[in-house]
Design goal:
This protein has 279 residues and is an alpha/beta fold. The chain has helices at 4-16, 54-63, 103-106, 127-134, 149-158, 172-181, 198-208, 222-230, 246-254, 265-274; strands spanning 38-42, 67-74, 80-82, 139-144, 165-168, 187-190, 212-214, 234-235, 259-262. It is 34% helix and 14% strand.
Length: 279
Amino acid sequence: MLTGSFYRLLAIAACIFQIDSASAQQLAPLPARKHPFIVVAHRGDHTQAPENTLQAYTNAIAAGADYVEIDLRTTADSQLVILHDASVDRMTNGKGLVKDMRLDSLRLLKVKDRMHPEWGESAIPTFREVLQLCRNRIYIYLDFKNADPATAWQAIVREGMEKQVVVYINAPQQFTRWREVAPAMPLMVSLPGSIRDTAALKDFLDKYHPEILDGGYEQYTPEMVSLATKMGYTVLPDIQGAGEGPEKWGKAIQKGIRALQTDRPGQLITWLKEKNLRR
């Protein structure tokens, strides 16, 4: 969850761009919706492959997910790669921080899932490889961990993915730079945990204007979801994690939520079809 200091700095960024309540009517359009209920595969469909690998993303495409969530980082030689953690320790046979390693060294490492060694080994993918894999097949939810927005945007344009990506913001300067280099890029932030009613939500939206709202699905009330939707915002919270399944999916549905990030995209899609919430 992002901190209060994050939002104080984000408010400064909003003032710099002179964002006012009228501009809420000019939100950047999201990628064209393919289904009435949006399913985001968290780090790819990693139920049968290591997370954040090309195979996990291929699995998400096969499962029918709308978006694949990926984590962007920068190497010591300014190359863009995909890995959730700042270090390679957990997911590879190597040690060290991504930012301190060159791409050629990273590519020698083997990505694996220690809980499922039978899944085999993969290489850390580059951003370019993921863009090429996903283009016109699945949208990208880009968790912007550590990278330069201008460099990332150039890569997106080069692969013709300008209308197939949304960006999750992790730092106020990312918000500012993305608004500068790509004003039409839909941006997403987590909803602060302190916001629990429609009055607080409206104040937040009037101040910051992210196109998409993340956060935990539990903190949203039906009234909050309804208000955000009427104001033109998309509510796309997280439901992934321990205990995810039909009970939690049902609770999210009852709140009016129609987009979720999940660790089980294939199972969620099957369940949604059974409930006539997805074709």
